[in-house]
Amino acid sequence: MVIWIIGAKSYESNRILGELEKNQIEVKQLNWTEIDLPLKEIPELCLIRYSKGMMDKQGIIFVLSAIEELQRSGCMVVPSIEGIYREDKMSIYLLWKRYLSDKIMMPDTLITKDIESARIFLDKKRVVVFKPLIGGLGKGVLKIDKEDQLIDLFKKYQVLFLQEYIQSPSYDIRTIVIGDKIILKYARYNKNDFKHNIHSGGEGKTVEEIAEFDQNIENHMEKIERMALDIKNIARLDMMGIDFLPSEGGFLYLLEWNSTFGFAGAESTTNIDVAKILTEYILSKLKK
Fold it and tell me: In terms of residue numbers, what domain contains 121?
């Protein structure tokens, strides 16, 4: 049995590699620059992890085509290409609007190629958050309150994904789902920035730590427990990190989901061995 892990070397990919090797599995850790098409060999399973090569216009075409070819060739790809197509910011919002909007809120959103529509949205909301359609780790996410910023972003991206700015109590909630189980929930706290990602300076905190200053977190966690598997089924992903944002008014918003989620902060905060659970899951899929 041969498994490939494709993506940049990271804490997460190294942890997964270690767990697979403990199970005496032959593993190749590759970046997308090491993949040539047509493929000369096909592994039994391929685990896709985050990589900068997935972020540029030409790179994403290469990556998606390679994943499709791996699946067509009989390789089990995790996450599947169907799930990957459903996790860009635009797809997440449109799926939420169609299937989940009666169950949980998202920040008011505009997706446009028209700068005038963007100006009107900014004027109405006063402060908005721009997010690149593809990306992770909080990179490229900006809080905007000036028209000049909007124009500069439009020149760079041509498509603007803008969301109403929600004032939070300095944290968001990351939930990790693997298979049909909610593995963990924890808070990412950042009092210095509106972005709460660990890579943006956030720090992991337990429910008990957050409850010391925000008693609403218990209600938020109960709602997430009810919602997470519904979201996972809509996303069609085997495993995912789902991000929720509480507001200062006590409401809970869905922000996004991600199949190549980081889990260093999750492990250090909760002491749950995410890499082991993830590895056990993908090995169980191969046995079916």
Answer: 109-164
